[in-house]
Amino acid sequence: MDSDEKAVFCHCGSPFNYPELKPIQSINAHPSNCICIKFDPTGKYFATGSADALVSLWDVEELVCVRCFSRLDWPVRTLSFSHDGKMLASASEDHFIDIAEVETGEKLWEVQCDSPTFTVAWHPKRPLLAYACDDKEGKYDNNREAGTVKLFGLPNDS
C-alpha cells in the first residue's frame, strides 16, 4: 500500500483501499469462521473471535498475530477492549466472561454468568464492563425474553 493510499477494514478483517474499495490484503486469522472483530482504542491492535473458541490479538501495523487466548470452550460471540486498551473481555456460551491483560495474555478475572453471554462492552472512560446474557432460563420468567444488563467493575466486585 502506498503512503498516500488509505486502508479501510471490512467485517472480515481484509483491508481495502479507498475510494476504490479493492482488496489490498487478506489474512487467515482462524481455521473457523470469524464471528467478531474489535479494534483497541489505541489503534495498536485488533482482536478476532472465532468459531474455534479462540481469541487472536493482531498487530495492526505488521498484520501478525501476537497472542492467542484459549480459555473459552465455545465459539467466541463478543469482544471488547477497555477504555485504555489494557484489558480484553471475551465471552461465549461458556458461563463466564474472560478478562485478560492485553500485553501479557494473563487472566485478570473470570466473571461468572448463569447463562451464555451475547455481548460485552467496556465503559468509554472507566474500568466498568456491561454485559447481557441469555436469561430465559433460571430465576426469570421462562415464558418471556429477559432483557437484563449486568455490570462488572463496581467497587464491591472482585
Automatic annotation (TrEMBL):
Record-given protein name: THO complex 3
Keyword terms, alphabetized: Repeat, WD repeat
Alphabetical list of SUPFAM superfamilies matching this protein: WD40 repeat-like
WD repeats (start-end): 27-61
GO biological process, one term: mRNA export from nucleus
Coiled coil, from the record: none
Membrane-spanning intervals of the chain: none
Pfam families according to UniProt: ANAPC4_WD40, WD40
InterPro entries noted in UniProt: Apc4-like_WD40_dom, Tex1/THOC3, WD40/YVTN_repeat-like_dom_sf, WD40_repeat_dom_sf, WD40_rpt
Domain Anaphase-promoting complex subunit 4-like WD40, first and last residues per copy: 73-123
Family: Belongs to the THOC3 family.
Signal peptide: none
Assigned GO CC terms: THO complex part of transcription export complex
Gene3D superfamilies with a match to the protein in the record: YVTN repeat-like/Quinoprotein amine dehydrogenase (2.130.10.10)
